[in-house]
Amino acid sequence: MKPTVLLLALALASVATAAAANDYKIGALEIQQPWARATPKGAKTAAGYVAVKNTGSAPDRLTGGSLVGAGGAQVHEMTMDNGVMKMRAMPDGIEIKPGETVELKPGGLHLMFTDLKARLVKGQSVKGTLTFANAGSLDVEFAVEGMGATAGTASHGMQMDHMQMH
What percent of the chain has pLDDT over 70? Predict the structure, then answer.
């Protein structure tokens, strides 16, 4: 094998390993790519995102979690109503039916981390926990993306002056 081809193969293998490093499993649940948005200095809240696939035959619920450096975490839903962003806590969490994948992403379902002690910085990762009604708790690491990130590196504009908390 030529050295260039070998280097390319090693580089691709390390990318695949890095991608898989942010995937987790607990019971019948597969957790894919937990991530959070970076926060500005002085921010007291942050949002976390993840996809959860239920490969089992019984439903489960994502009921919350935690993040190192945050006072609490709640499952939230964000909706738009006549151009006004509305956010509400979902105290019963989110059901993940058998065979279903539920995606927490900007503009919809997400984890709201409250009472931050320090800002989240792009490029770092933060230890946290996801809590499920049946499967229990799972330790994960949230990769911190840019402040306007969506699932990857694309930007997602959000007008915070139109946000209404419920």
Answer: 77
